[in-house]
Structures are given as structure tokens and as C-alpha cells.
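Notes to self, N-(5'-phosphoribosyl)anthranilate isomerase:
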Amino acid sequence: MQRVKVCCIGSSEEAALAIRCGASAFGLVSEMPSGPGVISEAEIAARIPPPIASVLLTSRTDPAEVIAQQRRCGVNALQLCDRLPRGAHQTIRRALPGVSLIQVVHVKDAASVEEAQTLSREVDAILLDSGNPSLRVKELGGTGRTHDWSLSAEIVKRSHAPVFLAGGLNPENVRRAIVQVQPFGLDICTGVRTAGALDEARLGAFMEAVGRCQSLGRRNSGRASMTRTRPA
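result:
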């Protein structure tokens, strides 16, 4: 089943809406360089039911600060939105052994493929986004832009960890994204929001499109299996 993480959850009402629509994870955004986060230190995390993953998006790169954030929030996963110094992932993992680490790679060019492949050995999952951490004011997500999905597809092939696809996904393009990239999961924010608020109709349409794509994949897989086992 395709995992769907609904990001930028800003209230208990949005969390409840995402659950009704079938989200498997929530993204809770803390302070980012390009603007304040949607929430303050993941105040909603304690209200998320255990089957749903609670993911704190952090722009911090100092392991001690990342560890302190998680301990304040109590989330069960950390999404590391910026590049961390060498050895930082191991330091965080030793301090937080039960917490999943998701490293964001902002896909720009062929170098991003190598970066993702290397980092995939250090973390539990890779998330591909369309920001730009090289700007003076870093863009670390939430841009609403897509990136080159052919590069994302190559990363999925080479990665040693599951890969989530983010960046400009919406109900209109998600089927094409799944077919081209074949990611483990999807991450959505701006594509299912209207005037900044989570839009029930758009989120429902997104989840329906994902479901149709999965159903088609299962049917095609079944036909292929029947063809392979059919006697000559």
C-alpha cells in the first residue's frame, strides 16, 4: 500500500480530517529559515493516535538541538530538512534509538542522486523535495514545486532505504508521479490546501487518485502473474 504523509498539520481539526481521509503519517513543521513553522514545537503530537506516525520537520543541524526538540515533542520520527554534519545521524540515533530518521534530499541535478544514495545508508527513509538549501535564506520545503522525477526514479532504484516523494504533488499529477517514480510513499502539503487550510475535497481527491493507481497496479500484477503461469 502507498503510504501518504500529510504535512503542515496545523490543528487538531486538520489532524482529524487527515485521519478520516486515510493518512498514514502527519508532518508537524517547526521553525524554518524561510518563515515560522506551522506549529510551535509540535504541540499536536500528543493527540495523534499510535497507528499514525508523527513526524517533526526540523531545520536544526546540530545533533544536540535535534535531540532536544524530539524529547520536548515526543514524536516518533524526525524529518531532517537540511544537510547535517558528518556523523550527526549516528549521534542522533544513539540518543533516540526508537525514533525513525527521515533525511530530506532536495533534488536539483545528478549530484542529488549520489547524495541520496549515500545518505540512504544512514537513515530509515529518504524524502525527495524541491527546495534549495544553497540560497542565502534556505528553502527547505513547502515550495509547491515539482522537480525532475526522472532523477527521483533513479534515486528509488539506488536507495538502500524507502523513498518518499514530495514537492508539488496534487490530485491532478499524483498518478503520473507514482507511475514514473514508484516511491514507497508520498508527502503532500500545498497541493491539498486552499487559502492555507487543509481542503477536504482536494485531500479526498488526492487519496482517491492514489487508491485508483494502486488498484490498477494490483490488477496489472495479477494479469502478469496469470500470463506467466499459463501453460504453453
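- The domain at 3-229 is CATH 3.20.20.70 (TIM Barrel).
- The radius of gyration is 18 Å.
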